[in-house]
Request: fold
Amino acid sequence: MRRSHAALWGAAIVLAGSVAWADGGDPVAARAQLRQGYALKQQGKCKEAVPFLQESARLDRQPKTLLNLGDCEQSLGQLAAAQAHFLEARDLARQQGIDALKNIGEKRLQDIEKRMPKLAIDVAKDAPPDTVVTRDGVEVGKVSLHTPLPIDVGRHVIVARGGGFERQFELALAESETKNIEVTPIGGKAIPKPVVAAADKPSAGQSPSSKKETSRAPGAAFKIDGPTTDRAESGSSAQRTLGFITLGVGALGLGGGAYFGARMLSKKTEASTMCTDLTPCSSEGAAAFEKTKSDARSARTNAFIGFGVGGAAALTGVILLLTAPKAMATGWRVAPAMGQSTVGAVVDGTF
Reply:
């Protein structure tokens, strides 16, 4: 058990080291990318600098890199992204004990909060109950409705979908601007309903129950048998393996018991010919006689142990093999299904 624990701890340490190395990235390459991005930023070329700064942050997330990236994103009007990077830079600097960068991050957050536009979306009272709203392709949850939320400067698309209709709304926001918009799918374009396959439609004069019965009649034109698995394969295999191992231990125990039993009989026979009334022993012979009797007693003890342990193990192995769960096959089958005026396919099987 101690060896198993040691092995597990060793594996955990190796894995932790691998994860730490992966998380560390490549600080040397990150610094090179930061230098290129910073040089472009100083030249006023933030659009060109952003890819270098993003790559540097990917390789090694450092407060200085995130602050420069946020500065460029802010100058490009990407205020939401800039805010996220300023926040991360401030928190990292705080963790690393770099007060100067932490203070810069806090100042940047205060400045960008004043410039950040906000948009509140309301759903009209006449909107269908199943109305779903998306903002720039991202669904707006119910808890986010009616609340002014930060958003980037520029044009945005709001879509309301529900009741079989979809309506699109567009608006633009400037820095520090807050807007409210009420949306509803009513008055928008109709959404096509999903097309139902002919095989799923009951024919004229045919009830759904009769359609169900005819669609389940398998044809003989083709059949595709799916993969089969064994639900109990894992458990059954493990129990059978343990059963065979235990049975093998039992066989070894019984074999050892038989060996020591034969040795005990041999030593007893040998002792019976030594130091009898007819053949008295010398002092050396008496010592040999006592040793032979001791060997016979040891062999008898080992024989009892071998037969006891071997018999118990063999019995346990047999019980494990006999009680191992049987495999339950699972699989699927595809076959044609034909009714009076429909053609389809049926998938059935055991799962």
The chain has a mean pLDDT of 78.
